[in-house]
Design goal:
Blueprint: H1 22-33, H2 35-50, H3 54-78, H4 85-93, H5 95-127, H6 131-135, H7 137-157, H8 159-190, H9 212-226, H10 231-234, H11 245-272, H12 274-279, H13 286-296, H14 301-331, H15 350-370, H16 374-400, H17 409-437, H18 454-476
Helix pairs in contact: 1-8, 1-11, 1-14, 2-9, 2-11, 2-14, 3-9, 3-11, 3-16, 3-17, 4-5, 4-16, 5-7, 5-14, 5-15, 5-16, 5-18, 7-14, 7-15, 8-11, 8-14, 9-16, 9-17, 13-14, 14-15, 16-17, 16-18
Length: about 500
């Protein structure tokens, strides 16, 4: 059938090159993970699953993240395409796998943006003492939609503007988290913590202390709290030294996150004890709101501000990988051509950015009305998608560089064995999680959707929808599906990546 790009006008201008530097990319990578929000949302459920071994689970979750970050680094050196996983998997393993990888990346943004904005609004209201507004669903959801629209506008106005906002937000966030952890540990050792407080021990770093399904569930949540660092790589076409700076920013983001997460996890578990955290796991982010006053007294607003700025920053940065992936897919005709539009003044993908925001708002409003726990179930489904496309990227790296794996020990480890081990760990975690979630009792809400846990139903629904859209696109635009794996874009000599 006729390709929908036939007769298109002159080529659109590209994304703005050299818009930001390495430090800006690192900050965006860190903020995309939303450290304070991620900890606030996950620490209770993780402790409920594995007890005092929560720091160990966060440490274990870091291992596949670092290995996959290595894959992102080396793949970015070969191909500086803002579509990252979509582009790399397509050129390494073919268009079908590449399309599914790109769909997974785009859908993660849709699933999480609303939840992030909701948390930013809630904690912002709590910070200034407007607790009644925070408890009012209509007010909170209206402000959440307005916030998403505002952050989307910042993304469209320009990457430099986004980076400036992110630099301010990360400083406030990290400072508040460090202050909270330091005060909590000080009070533990001074004996002025809660009655259930515990003395930190090195054994807490053992991720296998809990074992079984508890460990699997904890690791899946661990994948969620680390997710987002690759946003720096999605900006590769807009970063100075695009062949290496974005990849280095991604790797360093995971290392900084490791130190932050393990330190705060030690402080929270030691101060509050496992019973309190487990009993209040269903409060999600409210755990930090409760602990803030206990740990910091009249300075509790600092921690509330940390979670607010964390979620606010991530609301903005999470739109980036989804919008850039959609842009990349449209440029290759894997999605309709209008998604590839670049704003002539701001040089950003305005159409794909607004579409991602619009679908995210719709998802947020619909899921919020299903049940009080549906948003958290959608985050668990998000973790399944993350594990899938991270694992796919790890495999793509080894396939990309398959002819170089025997050149040196370094290349074998960093572009072959490491990414494959990371992919294998994530694939195992994905399979185990799917098995666990086939039992509704293992879900966060504990309810049954079609005899399965809600997160698994959501993930299956997204996957099926993706396959249907992919098949429709294959009928209407076959150009993308004619690409051959392993060939550089525009190459005529068959040069291998």
């Amino acid at each position: 059938m006729k390709d929908d790009t036939a007769g298109a006008a002159a080529p659109q201008p590209g994304l703005k090159a050299d818009a930001i530097g390495f430090t800006d990319a690192l900050v965006i990578g860190l903020n995309s993970t939303s450290p304070a929000y991620s900890l606030a949302a996950a620490i209770g459920p993780v402790v409920a699953l594995v007890g005092v071994y929560a720091p160990g689970v966060l440490l274990a979750s870091f291992v596949p993240m670092l290995l996959i970050a290595s894959a992102f680094y080396y793949l970015n050196k070969a191909d500086q395409d803002c579509g990252t996983t979509f582009s790399w998997v397509t050129r390494a393993m073919g268009p079908w796998a590449g399309w599914l990888g790109g769909w997974a990346v785009a859908m993660t943004g849709v699933l999480v943006v609303g939840s992030l904005a909701d948390v930013a609004v809630t904690f912002g209201l709590l910070t200034v003492g407007l607790d009644d507004w925070a408890a009012n669903d209509a007010v909170r959801q209206s402000l959440t939609v307005l916030l998403i629209l505002g952050m989307t506008a910042v993304c469209v106005i320009g990457t430099e503007a986004s980076a400036k906002v992110q630099n301010v937000l990360i400083l406030a966030q990290v400072a508040c988290l460090i202050a909270f952890a330091a005060v909590a540990l000080y009070r533990v050792y001074q004996g002025t913590a809660t009655a259930d407080s515990l003395t930190p021990a090195g054994g807490w770093l053992n991720p296998f202390g809990a074992g079984g399904a508890a460990l699997t569930g904890g690791l899946l949540l661990g994948v969620f709290v680390y997710w987002g660092w690759e946003s720096a790589v999605n900006l590769t076409e807009e970063v100075e030294d695009s062949a290496s700076a974005p990849g280095r920013a991604g790797v360093w983001s995971t290392i900084v996150l490791l130190v932050t997460y393990v330190s705060v996890a030690f402080a929270v578990v030691a101060f509050a004890g496992t019973a309190f955290l487990a009993d209040n796991a269903d409060e999600e982010e409210a755990i930090f709101a409760t602990l803030a006053s206990q740990v910091m007294g009249g300075w509790d607003w600092l921690l509330l501000l940390a979670v607010c700025t964390s979620a606010l920053a991530s609301t903005q940065t999470t739109i980036i990988p989804a919008s850039r992936t959609v842009l990349s897919m449209a440029r290759r005709q894997a999605l309709p051509a209008h998604f590839a539009r670049i704003h002539p003044r701001f040089r950003t993908p305005d159409t794909s950015t607004w579409w991602v925001a619009g679908v995210a708002i719709a998802w947020y409003l619909v899921v919020s009305r299903i049940s009080v726990n549906a948003l958290f179930d959608s985050l668990t489904a998000l973790s399944l998608l993350i594990a899938f496309y991270y694992a796919l990227t790890g495999v793509a790296c080894a396939v990309y560089y398959r002819r170089r794996l025997t050149h040196s020990v370094r290349e074998f480890l960093f572009i072959g064995a490491g990414p494959l081990i990371g992919a294998a760990l994530l694939a195992w975690l994905l399979v185990e999680s799917i098995v666990d979630m086939s039992d509704p009792a293992n879900s966060y809400s504990g309810v049954s959707w079609f005899g399965l846990a809600p997160p698994l139903v959501i993930a299956i629904g997204i996957a099926v929808t993706g396959v249907v859209v992919m098949l429709v696109r294959r009928v209407y635009s076959a150009a993308y599906w004619s690409e051959r794996p392993g060939v550089l874009p525009g190459a005529t000599d068959g040069k291998e990546l």
